[in-house]
Amino acid sequence: MDVQASPIPVPRALATDPRQAAQALGRLLYQTPDRGVFLEALNALNGDLTVKRLGAQLRSHQSALQWGRDEDGQHAPELARLEREMQTLPVVQEYRQAEAGVRQLFCAVDEIVSQEAGVAFAVNAKRGGCCGG
Amino acid sequence: MMPMVEEMEHVAAELGKSLRRESLMRAHLEAVEEFHSSPEAVELEERLYASYDDLIARQQAGEQLSREDIQAFYDLRRWVQAHPVISKRDNALGSVKPHLAEVADEISLLLSADYTALARPE
User: Fold this and answer.
1) B4-118 maps to CATH 1.20.1500
2) A120: alpha, beta or left? (left if phi > 0; alpha if psi -120 to 50)
3) Is B9 at the interface with chain A, CB within 8 A?
4) Burial A98-115 (b: 16+ CB within 10 A, else e)
5) Distance from CA of A34 to the nearest CA of B (A)
6) Which residues does A112 contact at the CB level (< 8 Å), separation at least 6?
7) For every one of its 122 residues, what pLDDT tens digit does chain B have, with 9 covering 90 and above?
8) Would you list the domain boundaries of chain B?
9) Cα-only R_g, chain A
10) Residue bearing the bigger pLDDT, A79 or A3
């Protein structure tokens, strides 16, 4: 696990309630530099005007393709061009890097939880989209 | 005082252990064990996965799948889903999932980020 070591108080005994154990884990993850860097990068991404403009254009082309409104065949190449442009933006690249860092840490943590629980935790804890679950 | 990495590993393990002790999870793990103890159920499910992989491979190779091929797959899937040991395992997992989601919510709330989305490979 790639986390900067910093001494923190250790609880004498963890509660046997999974919710309390989850809160303890959440507090520890909150303190990691990876989580801070990720949220900063996410905020920067969400506040970037170029990202917003490109995002709106991307959604417009995606919608056209989704609804079969691509008579002149321009939407697919334009979508690909905009996606490439988006990926070259420094704010997007910084976000991707921060996301990869936090993902690596969370995956390592999740592997331990899953191993002990006997079930893949994050995968099975994911809430469904539009259809609940 | 314990280094943060060690503490995090300890707390993650404790979370896993506390989940494992719960009755819903025990029922799920027993159902999984029952599945693995049933050669018939294991073979049936393996056949389904093999059939799926075969159809995908043929489709990707440019073959137009026949209605019979697709129907045979759906029939096999229905058969698999109706198998008592498999359906018991799947239902047990289905019962555990909402509870796991609630537990994961505790982490996500503290992080202001969806733990379940970030704790999975892309």
Assistant:
1) yes
2) beta
3) yes
4) bbebbbebbbbbbbbbbe
5) 11
6) B9, B12, B13, B16
7) 566 788 999 999 999 999 999 999 999 999 999 999 999 999 999 999 999 999 999 999 999 999 999 999 999 999 999 999 999 999 999 999 999 999 999 999 999 999 999 998 88
8) 4-118
9) 20
10) A79
Which residue in chain B has the smallest CA separation from A110?
Answer: B119
A7 closest CB neighbour out of B3, B15, B116: B3
State the pLDDT at residue A128. 77
Task: From residue B36, give the alpha-carbon distance in Å to each of A84, B39, B40, B42, B51.
Answer: 47, 7, 9, 6, 20
Q: Which residues of B touch A112 (CB under 8 A)?
A: 9, 12-13, 16
pTM: 0.80
Residue A72 — very low, low, confident or very high, per pLDDT cuts 50/70/90? confident
Residues with Cβ < 8 Å from B77, sequence gap 6 or more?
A: B48
Q: How many CB pairs under 8 A join A and B?
A: 180
What domains, with CATH codes, occur in chain A? 33-125 (1.20.1500.10)
A34 to A90, B63, B121: CA distances (angstroms): 18, 47, 16
